[in-house]
Amino acid sequence: MGELVVEFAGDAVEVAERLTFGRAGDLELDSNPHLHRLVGEFARTDEGWWIRNLGSRLFLSVTADDGTRVDLAPASQHLITAGRGVVRVTAGQARYEMAFRTETPAMRRVDVDDSDDLATRPFEAILTPREVDFLVTFARPTLDGSGGPLPTYVEVASTWGVSPKTLDNTIQSIKRKLRNARLAREEPLETLVRIAISHSLVTAADLEWSRLPTGEPRPAADGPRFAG
């Protein structure tokens, strides 16, 4: 298996086995106190190169040149299956970006174990546009890096012009889909939102389309996710 090359701030590092990154990692991103000492790592196994989130609070966003996008929650990992990509992390008001490339990406696959962590798993349930609208609104503080509390049911219902009862019925539908996919049990809303982000059920691209930070919300039904 060939080496992995990671580029940050104009410098390229060849990785033979493992490269940690963070405030005090092998790759020092910044002295920003909002960063973990170790945010994540690139690591090689017999299966291929992995990107792992080693932190306890921050999410990693992985975008590959084949168009795939994964948002990694703390304690989750992603197998690199494309030759090139970018890892991003937002800490406080700062955003950091690392590019990676390898000539030997792994075959596309997902390993599933019996643990209850948020490791990357397949998700076959299909979310409706309304479910995406509501989820991305609850997930906004994480997706935009602000790190604030989740909005309330009343705030989300008001944003989309529905009743709190309609919102709750939709959230219950999402919970059933997550349970059927064995991604969740009877989890609180905050945990469900984290699971949704970690499995790319809602992403920064959904937030950008929604225009929630800037004005009148734009429904997912009108966007590229549900085109055609």
Strand order of the largest sheet: 2-1-11-10-7-8
Q: Main β-sheet: number of strands, strand sense, barrel status? A: 6 strands, antiparallel
CATH domain class name of the largest domain:
Mainly Beta
Secondary structure: helix percent:
25-40%
Provide the CATH architecture of the largest domain.
Sandwich
Primary descriptors:
alpha+beta, Tumour Suppressor Smad4, 2 domains, 11 strands, 25% helix, globular
Explain the overall architecture.
By secondary structure, the chain is an alpha+beta fold. The chain has two domains: 4-101, Tumour Suppressor Smad4, CATH 2.60.200; 129-226. 25% of the residues lie in helices and 24% in strands. The protein contains five helices and eleven strands; from the N terminus they run E-E-E-E-E-E-E-E-E-E-E-H-H-H-H-H. The strands form two sheets. Strands 2-1-11-10-7-8 form a six-stranded antiparallel β-sheet, with no helix packed on it. A five-stranded mixed β-sheet has the order 4-3-5-6-9, with no helix packed on it. A hairpin with a 2-residue loop joins strand 1 (4-8) and strand 2 (11-15). The longest helix is centred in the last third of the chain and has 17 residues, at 164-180. It is globular. Residues 108-125 have low confidence and may be disordered.
